[in-house]
Amino acid sequence: MRSLPTGLTAMFLLALAAGAAHAQEDGLLPVEQAFRLEAKTAGAGKLALHWDIAPDYYLYRSRIKAKTTQAGLTLGTLELPAGEKKQDEFLGEVEVYHHAIDATLPYTLADAAAKSVTVSLTVQGCHETDPKICYPPHPTTVTLDLAAAATVATNTGPGAGLPPNPLAGNGGGVLASGGGLQLGADAGAVDSAPLPPEQAFVFEAIAQSPTAILARWTMPKNYYLYRDRSKVTLAGGDGITLGAPQWPAGVDHTDEHFGTVQVYYDQVELPIGLLRDRGDAQTVKLHAEYQGCLENGICYPVMQKDVSVDLPAATDEQLAAAKAAFIAAPAESIAAEAAPATAADAAGQERPPAPGSQPSLTGILGALLFALLGGLVLNLMPCVLPVLSLKVLGLAQSGESAAKARRHALVYTAGVLVTFAAVGLAVIGLRAAGQALGWGFQLQQPVFVAVLVYVLFAIGLSLSGVYNIGAGLAGVGQGLSNRSGAAGDFFTGVLAVVVASPCTAPFMGSALAYAFSASSFVALLVFLALGLGLALPFLLVGFVPALAARLPRPGAWMETLKQFLAFPMYLTAVWLAWVLGNQRGIDAIAWVLIGATVLALGLWWWERHRYQGHPVQRVIAVVVILAALLPIARIARLEAPAAHAATSAGVPYSAERLASLRAEGRSVFVDVGADWCVTCKVNEKAVLDTDAFRDLLRRSNAVLMTADWTNVDPAITAFLQDYNAVGVPLYVVFRAGEAGRGHALPTVLTQAIVEQALAPH
């Protein structure tokens, strides 16, 4: 069991939030009487310890500790018997003791002539019937005279019933100092009864503006609030999302048992921005959870309070400004921590700079290198494979001459770079306008997906020979033929970037995260580096004769290959139609199939009358092709299904549900993906949708939580931004018993990676 603030709720003094005075009125024993210690020497080099535990009380096995500050005294491992298994509400499975416990503590002395040993023994336990309370860790210091064999009850109260000091020569035995109702051995006594929780920590919230709330805690003198145990969540509000809370700097507070934490005295104000779907006057409900202490006194259990805040009406300008601020500021984890992990950290990649910081030259060069490597690896991702076939075919055709091979490679590279630059400029511009965008964002738009179905289906028809792209559009002749070939190479580069967007290759994540936090110029360089990496293999083939010479000679086989390669295009179009169905329902699939059929009819009719027949026939063909756009207009008006079923069995993501599972002591594996993300689907098939992974979840007492980003979702976008992830997939593990942020995993999973992530630490 860990001693950091994760277990504060179960480990601190009063669940009733009364004080020491009220405790006795409720029939609770002082801690020294609830857990009565006797200590004696048990031969050379060993102490015998005995605790009498009062009825209805128990001690935690893992919270019995021994230490010493005596020079020359070394303590061995405290030898404790096995305890009773207990399922603790906050700490999970623990071992406890009832009635009594005997233990031994080995020790060694550097000075054989030493006449005494001084040891500090700390225990912690609870009262298990009403009123149910857990005491704070209770230290007792015992000094044993090695020349005497007496045993004396020690902690019946501070200073009560103690034998004479053996060091003063008045007899043998034990000297003990009880800790009383205090947090540490050096803490002072409580001067007065603690206040009830509603008086010690006054929580309230007001509307600062139509799109901002101010939460406030007010504490009397000598009371303080823990930052990492306090949070505000949304309990109710139609179309409202809470932004990142702007916690002010706290005061470092060092506790003997819990280390250094940040706390607030007197009063703390917490501004919280709001994202609203509509501008009419509304009421928002907030749920606050918080914990604090009386200095040198008790620590309260986690307190909860719900408040309602009336929001005034907001103008369209205020809603737009709030949306821009909400998206631009990455959401922060409320829990304080020393070293948060990011997706880049987990993959061993360079971490992007914080927003607004000035990137160093080393950071820029590192980001460009990662972008180049990410683009190179992107060639191997399954979403790019259908277009890879087109590139191979074009390069094989260029085997006629070295000059033609270079031209194919350069024009294809130009298509890739121009498209990457356009995507980069669009992302940068739209994010500056307050839109929550990331890599692959365009596939969240059903209209774009439907158009992409048309494009891939049309390419397949061309490869199958139904029609020829660009042939003879402006006449015949060698020059025009060459121009048509260049256009084909350029378009292939454009298409490679478009269909690559569902994939996130290794190295891409940190490079794109860096781009979104750097200046526009640096961001554009990163996008161009990604494009250069994607085009690099074909540049090498075009400019290195030895590689070009290994390509097969042109021949009749090329027509067969071209027709065969139509089928990967058809399959990709089918997959995108499935994605569209998940976004807008079965009607969307029907409409896109109708549109694709009409498009095929128009293209076939155009090809039949391209060179012969009346011009009216070609006009009819154009009208039919344009008619294929009508189903896309219908798709644009379809509503999203009421609920989208996740492809992986798991709990749907919500920040509140995640916090609840962590409070229950469960490990949580968060899977952020989308139906259009091919990398996500590969990881699901290889790892997440396997019996081995399901068995791992059972063994780890872990919960799989799925966050579906197929459609725009501000809450999931905020989670992605919290981990500097600019697209999906994102996998984050929250281990049981660990406070703060989760641990982000690489974008490409293996069973070994998830085994290590969910293993106890």
Give the averaged pLDDT, no decimals. Answer: 74
Which class do the helix and strand fractions yield? Answer: alpha+beta
Strand content: 15-25%
> If strands are numbered along the chain, what order do they take across the biggest sheet?
5-8-2-1-13
From the spread of the alpha carbons, the general shape counts as elongated
Number of strand elements? 30
Helix percentage: 25-40%
Oligomeric form: single chain
Radius of gyration: 34 Å
> What summary fits the major beta sheet?
5 strands, antiparallel
Structure, explained:
- This protein has 761 residues and is of the alpha+beta class.
- The chain is built from 24 helices and 30 strands.
- A five-stranded antiparallel sheet has the order 5-8-2-1-13.
- Helix 9 (402-432) packs across helix 11 (478-500), helix 10 (446-463) runs antiparallel to helix 16 and helix 10 packs antiparallel against helix 19.
- The longest helix has 31 residues, at 402-432.
Based on the model shown, name its key terms.
22% strand; alpha+beta; 761 residues; 24 helices
Secondary structure layout plus pairing:
Layout: H1 8-11, H2 20-25, H3 31-34, E1 35-41, E2 46-53, E3 57-60, E4 65-67, E5 73-75, E6 84-88, E7 92-97, E8 100-109, E9 116-123, E10 125-127, E11 133-134, E12 138-145, E13 152-153, E14 174-178, H4 197-200, E15 202-209, E16 212-218, E17 223-226, E18 231-236, E19 240-245, E20 251-255, E21 259-265, E22 267-276, E23 282-290, E24 292-294, E25 303-311, H5 316-328, H6 343-346, H7 361-378, H8 385-397, H9 402-432, H10 446-463, H11 478-500, H12 508-517, H13 520-543, H14 545-548, H15 557-564, H16 566-584, H17 586-608, H18 615-627, H19 629-636, E26 651-652, H20 655-663, E27 667-673, H21 678-688, H22 691-699, E28 702-708, H23 714-722, E29 730-734, E30 743-744, H24 751-758
Parallel strand pairs: 26-28, 27-28
Antiparallel strand pairs: 1-2, 1-13, 2-8, 3-7, 3-10, 4-9, 5-8, 6-7, 9-12, 10-11, 12-14, 15-16, 16-22, 17-21, 17-24, 18-23, 19-22, 20-21, 23-25, 27-29, 29-30
Helix pairs in contact: 7-12, 7-13, 8-11, 9-11, 9-13, 10-16, 10-17, 10-19, 12-13, 16-17, 17-18, 17-19, 22-24
